[in-house]
UniProtKB/TrEMBL annotation:
This is Rubrerythrin. InterPro entries: Ferritin-like, Ferritin-like_diiron, Ferritin-like_SF, Ferritin_DPS_dom. PROSITE patterns: FERRITIN_LIKE. GO terms for cellular component: cytosol. Residues 68-87 are annotated as: Disordered. Pfam families: Ferritin.
Length: 149
């Protein structure tokens, strides 16, 4: 029913969403300072959305008779989203989020292309999630602009 590229991209996206949840949660807990509050609140909101993305991707994998990745299948890749040593280094977290969102956007665009007309359900899921990721990127670009000024 589906090709290997679609399955591989679904599994990558699923793992990336789970890793993002972990890093967003940790960063939302450890950040300190007045300027951190808005970023922390945004991360806290995004955690549930990223978890919902993972659930959608996992359900789609199940529908395609594939198993979503589990912890033994996991390989961490979000180096720039690791919590900073200095808990007031909000800019490093913003930059890490932007890197993660760029990667997610690239993955979902690849998934849309790979699914194409052959798998409109996967394509629709990827389009929906892509819109969310682009919205997150826009929000964090705004945070970055404030820091750059």
């Amino acid at each position: 029913m589906t090709n290997q590229e679609v399955t591989d991209l679904l599994k990558k996206a699923y793992s990336d969403e789970i890793e993002t949840v972990m890093n967003y949660l940790t960063n939302s807990i450890i950040l300190d300072g007045v300027s951190a509050e808005e970023v922390k609140e945004s991360l806290e909101t995004d955690i549930q959305e990223e978890l919902n993305h993972a659930e959608m991707l996992g359900q789609r994998l199940k529908q395609l008779d594939e198993r979503p990745p589990a912890s033994y299948d996991f390989e961490a890749r979000q180096e720039s989203l690791q919590p900073p040593e200095n808990s007031t280094d909000v800019l490093s977290v913003i930059n890490g989020v932007l890197d993660a969102e760029e990667d997610a956007i690239e993955t979902y665009r690849s998934l849309i292309s790979a699914a194409g007309d052959e798998d409109p359900v996967t394509e629709d899921i990827a389009v929906t999630i892509l819109a969310d990721e682009e919205a997150h990127r826009t929000e964090f670009r705004g945070f970055k602009r404030e820091y750059d000024e």
